[in-house]
């Protein structure tokens, strides 16, 4: 089950469960659409993978399966991914 993390790992913008401007990678790294497009160039800085829109969990299911409250933030910043 998705954690539905509460913030962008790059800029720390709040990303509530109903937000539509959230993208995740296959490992659930969570970023806002602006950071993905303008800072990360569509590549996850953690795993090198691509992003997909985070689904919206229905309100009734949020009551039973709440979103995570644990904030994740890249300690070293999240500038553009460096070439390997």
From TrEMBL:
One Pfam family per UniProt: DUF1272
Protein's recorded name: DUF1272 domain-containing protein
Classification via InterPro entries: DUF1272 (IPR010696)
């Amino acid at each position: 089950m998705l954690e539905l993390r509460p913030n962008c790992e790059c800029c720390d913008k709040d990303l509530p469960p109903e937000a539509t401007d959230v993208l995740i990678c296959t490992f659930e790294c969570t970023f806002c659409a602006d950071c993905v497009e303008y800072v990360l160039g569509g590549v996850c800085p953690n795993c090198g993978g691509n992003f997909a829109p985070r689904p919206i969990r229905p309100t009734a299911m949020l009551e039973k399966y709440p979103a995570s409250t644990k904030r994740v933030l890249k300690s070293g910043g999240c500038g553009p991914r460096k070439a390997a």
